[in-house]
Design goal:
alpha/beta, Carbamate kinase, two-stranded antiparallel ribbon, 16% strand, globular, binds uridine 5'-triphosphate
């Protein structure tokens, strides 16, 4: 069993849906699902951010803003549904667990306000005793310094839960910073000893390596 957190930035780019990417990604996970179960939790990306920006201007509260984000993740996840997958997008971790009991391939988005799809991926993994989550976004992994502020950054290949959590919390404390992993996701991984592999989802060959347990380019949190 594998759980994948697929960042919304890989689905949407500059106002357009990446149809070719969706097809290619789908082929890889469908192939994998012939021999093992796989759940893909899809993020919101640009569409979520646009709705949240407008909602904020209209004065909606944070709960409703999260709700808009969740709806965006579910729309994105719906693009992956096929006759090879569970036929709908589960709305909760419980529903995802039921879906995985009968289907090898499940696509879903967010669940409740207050966290991101990274945390949902870790909750599904925890609930299904899956020991590995692959996080795909448009960055290569965790760097030793914020890559938007520094040029001389180095990719960290291996990092402990404690150090990753510290970095995530420091990043969340600063305005408009965005660490690659949600702190709640790291906390769940730590308490259930779930390995998180973070890599750039644009390189699908690298993704295949990570999926098959081979050496990949990115960061491992353990
Ligand atoms: P994402 O999981 O895409 O959030 O959900 P993100 O990590 O902030 O976005 P990227 O990956 O950097 O593009 C989008 C938004 O939907 C809400 C949150 O507001 C989140 O920021 N959300 C999502 C929830 O409230 N609960 C969920 O379970 C999922």
């Amino acid at each position: 069993m594998k759980v994948i957190s697929l960042g919304g930035s890989l689905i949407w780019k500059r106002g357009a849906i990446r149809t070719a990417y969706i097809k290619e990604f789908h082929n890889i996970v469908r192939e994998y699902s012939r021999k093992d179960k796989i759940c893909v939790v899809v993020g919101g990306g640009e569409i979520a951010r646009k709705y949240v920006q407008v909602g904020r201007k209209l004065g909606l509260d944070e709960f409703l803003l999260d709700y808009l984000g969740i709806m965006a993740t579910r729309i994105n996840a719906s693009l992956f549904i096929s006759e090879d997958s569970y036929p709908t997008v589960p709305f909760s971790v419980e529903e995802a667990v039921r879906a995985l009991a009968t289907h090898n391939l499940v696509f879903m988005g967010g669940t409740e306000p207050g966290h991101t799809t990274d945390a949902v991926a870790l909750m599904v993994a925890e609930r299904t005793k899956c020991k590995e989550v692959i996080n795909l976004s448009n960055v290569d992994g965790i760097y030793d310094k914020d890559p938007r502020k520094h040029r001389d950054v180095k990719l960290i290949e291996k990092i402990s839960y404690d150090k990753a959590l510290k970095m995530a919390l420091e990043s969340y404390a600063g305005a408009s910073t965005n660490f690659v992993m949600d702190p709640l996701a790291i906390k769940i991984a730590a308490r259930s000893k779930i390995v998180i592999k973070i890599l750039n989802g644009n390189d699908l060959e690298n993704f295949k390596k990570a999926l098959e347990g081979k050496k990949f380019y990115g960061t491992t949190i353990r």
